[in-house]
Design a protein that fits this description.
It contains 5 helices and 6 strands, in the order E-H-E-E-H-E-H-E-E-H-H. The chain is of the alpha/beta class. It has one domain: Rossmann fold (3-Layer(aba) Sandwich). The radius of gyration is 15 Å and the shape is globular.
Length: 152
């Protein structure tokens, strides 16, 4: 059986993850530096890791298996999960793949350099209803593919 891992500290799509996981009876691991509320009876496990910049990422990367799905906005974490044979979905609903992860890492590095030089300001745009729909559709496809390839 596959599992859905959520890099939960700043994930705006937790409710959408719960909906898809409940539909398929899949366990969810919410991984964060602090405890947060979780729905009862849906198979959601709250994993609280040590405070630290990459503690949640490290826990996910060490525990994820081939076929599992990770939901994260963290591109390096997505790359680590892809290396382990898992699927990775950005919180914006865009899947990461072996083909796209290299350019995503390069764009991340370029944007960091531009921010440090003061040429790029502001943060990510807000989440729209279109983003939520794209996320739900992409997560549903990933889960179905994972279930086909790794039946429980």
């Amino acid at each position: 059986m596959i599992e859905i891992f959520v890099d939960a500290d700043a994930c705006p799509m937790k409710d959408e993850v719960y909906r898809v996981a409940a539909r398929h009876g899949l366990p969810v691991a919410l991984v964060a530096n602090q405890r947060m509320s979780t729905p009862e009876g849906l198979g959601v496990e709250m994993v609280v890791v040590d405070q630290g910049p990459d503690s949640a990422d490290d826990w996910i990367a060490e525990n994820i298996r081939a076929g599992d799905v990770v939901v994260t906005a963290d591109i390096p974490l997505a790359a680590r999960c892809l290396e382990r044979g898992a699927r990775a979905l950005g919180t914006n609903g865009r899947p990461f793949s072996e083909d796209s992860i290299g350019s995503a890492l390069a764009s991340r590095s370029l944007n960091r350099d531009l921010r440090e030089a003061g040429l790029l300001t502001g943060g990510p745009s807000g989440i729209s209803s279109r983003d939520r729909t794209r996320f739900l559709d992409a997560l549903e496809r990933m889960v179905q593919q994972g279930l086909r390839e790794h039946p429980g």
